[in-house]
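P.,

For your records, the input lines for the assembly:
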Amino acid sequence: MTITQTKPKSPAPDERVAQRSPFQKLLGRPEVGALAGAIVLFIFFALVSPTFTQPNALATILYGSSTIGIMAVGVSLLMIGGEFDLSTGVAVITSALTASLFSWYFSTNVWVGVGLALVVSLSIGFINGWILMKTKLPSFIVTLATFLMLTGLNLGLTRLIGGGVSSPSISNMEGFAPARAVFASSVTIGGVDVKITVFYWFALVAVATWVLMRTRVGNWIFAVGGDANAARAVGVPVRATKIGLFMAVGFCGWILGMHNLFAFDTVQSGEGVGNEFLYIIAAVIGGCLLTGGYGSAIGGAIGAFIFGMANKGIVYAQWNPDWFKFFLGLMLLLATIVNLIVKRRTELK
Amino acid sequence: MNAKEIDQQTLLQKEEVPLTPVHLLSLDGVAKHYGNIIALSDVTMAVDNGRVTCVLGDNGAGKSTLIKIIAGLHQHDAGTLKVLDEERRFTSPRDALDAGIATVYQDLAVVPLMPIWRNFFLGSELTSGFGPFKSMDVEKMKAITLKELAAMGIDLRDVEQPIGQLSGGERQCVAIARAVHFGAKVLILDEPTAALGVKQSGVVLRYILQARDRGLGVIFITHNPHHAYPVGDRFLLLKRGKSIGYYDKRDITLDELTAQMAGGAELAELAHELEQLGSHSDIVKEVHGEVAEVAKTTGKTY
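Structure tokens returned:
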């Protein structure tokens, strides 16, 4: 065959394609709205509060962002895959409680509890996904049920085993110090203490981005979210992909749960309720479509960073933190409108 | 040559010598019942390499049943289905696909928000590397997508753009090119022009010819004789589950084909009914005109 082939990198000029500058290409990315919002917010807080740009303050902001961002990675992937999960907030606490109560009750090395917590977290994800695929119910209903059940289990089992509303302290148990070093230590960079969760967050974002953009599984995630029937018709394992995504969310929940446990030494059993919305908000601000098939892990990270900036920036600017939720709501609304416009432009041309 | 599969050799022979038509697929007296309903009876047709066989018929004529038998979704109850002279009975779509028979359905199975190259390779991605570090060979996939689409005569703007931005005709073409790339030798196109405008239909018809020129046997399902006639080499007409004609192109004109499709008897009946209603005299006159025209081309009276 003699086909003169144009290289993908330098397509022949075509009158139907206006020359797109790198700037215009950037505008086509899912996370561009979030990026612009983050830059504006950063400049704004830098102007109103001089302490905001201090290295120590930035480290604090990054830490705050990472506690949302770690979960936002999994939640973004899940949302691209066309589902969402309301049980994430309490599942984090379930993971932490599992580790602490198990090792306290059976007086084991805390690492045994940490391992068991991983199994429990992955199982919660698996069960969510499995019920969803079996029943074909909306993920809203299935994970709302899981959310309620886990909330009850957290409170009930903590009182039953530990006898209180918070888990007993495990600080003098075997393996606590190394576990704290792994999950809740700080790394000093240029005289600034940066929490280790920031690095976990960056690593998770990098892995998730690689998976999405460069692996078959990434292709499948986009496909099951974009059109599950079409994906099935060309041989994509839809069920396995979606269940895997719920388990990835479980894994992220485990990391954050372990951090919550080892940053202190006890866990409040009633915590976590409402956090699931923060993760979803971060993903949506970052450009993930609620309807699936579109978005990026970096977008979710930027969404989490916006959350961290707004949260801490209000404190540094010495404003009343009452306003925080208002800002968050406004950001969410604006981001969703931007996403909607992007999607319409993409689908309808 | 392995008789079970249509291999590339059969298709490539035209590069040296002028194409010798081979029956890639042939049906003889094929019938299908659903309980006591006769969905299809006594259908005989053949699909050659480098030829287009058109299946024409109105809604409910049995076109879908026929595709489903060839594509392996249903099994026929009578008659024979042969692939390269060997009798076959497909038990699953995979079975038909392995024999080189691919179907492009109307909904195309593409994900609108995903880039063209990702859609092209969806479910059959190329990878490199090992174990957990296995990644997609993105550059190669993009290059193949461009090449395959160019071979189909579609000059593409950018394989990175979402497939939802392409026109209906172009999307059809990507689906056809995908089927060809993944080994189709017989291509079944289910009403590819049904939802398209005049210009877009023209684009799709050109792609059908491109596929034919690459040596594929094409089964083109349509209810529009004006689309079928210019590209078809053989025409099978179905009506109420029966074959009402199987013609070579040289034996039939477009007018005759249209007349056969329209059915002079139905038109005459329609005129009669309208007359009984009493009004709409202009429409009745028009239908009578049509009947006369059909009678003239087919040489029958109604």
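Two observations worth noting. The beta strands of chain A are 186-189, 192-195. Chain A touches chain B through 35 residues (CB under 8 Å).

Regards
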